Amino acid sequence: MKISLVTLICLCLLFTSCQEDEPLDLEGLEWLQAEIADIQQSSLAEYFYINEAEYKRDRVFIIENCCPFCSTVVSVYSEEGELLGYIGDSIATDQLKDQRLFWQPEDAACFQ
Predict the structure, then answer these.
(1) How many CA atoms lie within 13 A of 66 on its CB side?
(2) How far apart are CA 29 and CA 33, in angstroms?
(3) Torsion 51-38-27-55 (CA) sign
(4) Which of 41, 56, 62, 67 has the most Cβ atoms closer than 10 angstroms to its Cβ?
(5) What does pTM read for this prediction?
(6) Ramachandran region of residue 10, left (φ > 0), alpha (ψ -120 to 50) or beta?
(7) What is the side-by-side strand order in the sheet with 48-55?
(8) Rounded to an integer, what distance in angstroms lies between the CA atom of residue 74 and that of residue 63?
C-alpha cells in the first residue's frame, strides 16, 4: 500500500493542528492564578511547572520543578488551594492517578 506524500503531509497537519495549546481554565482557581503569578515573578520560573492529577477521587494540583540546583519538596493542593501534603512524605506517587501537565511557563526548561 503506497501512501502519497500529499496524504502524509495532510495527516501531519491534521494531527498537529488538533494538538494546539488550549487556554487554561482557571475559573474558580484564584489561588492557583496567584501561585502562577508568583512563579512567573521568580528568577527560577523557567524550572517550575504544575501538574494536575486525581488523588482520592478528587482533582489536585502538584507544584513541581526540575531545578538542577534546588532542594525540592513537592506540594499537593486541593482544588480549593488547601495543602494536602507532600510527595514522598504524606502522599505516595502511586496515589496520584492520571497525572498530566497543567501549566508551564513559556520559557520552560523542564520538558525539552
Answers:
(1) 12
(2) 6
(3) positive
(4) 62
(5) 0.75
(6) alpha
(7) 83-86, 75-78, 58-65, 48-55, 96-103
(8) 6
DSSP helix/strand/coil, 49: strand
How far is the CA of 83 from the CAs of 2, 10, 64, in angstroms? 56, 46, 14
CA 97 – CA 2 distance, rounded (Å) = 41
73, 86 contact by CB (below 8 A): yes
Residue 12: strand, helix, or coil:
helix
Q: How many CB atoms lie within 10 A of CB 78?
A: 15
CA distance 31 to 37: 10
Which residue in 112, 108, 87 sits closest to 99, CA to CA? 87
Q: Which three cell numbers stand for residue 92?
A: 505516595
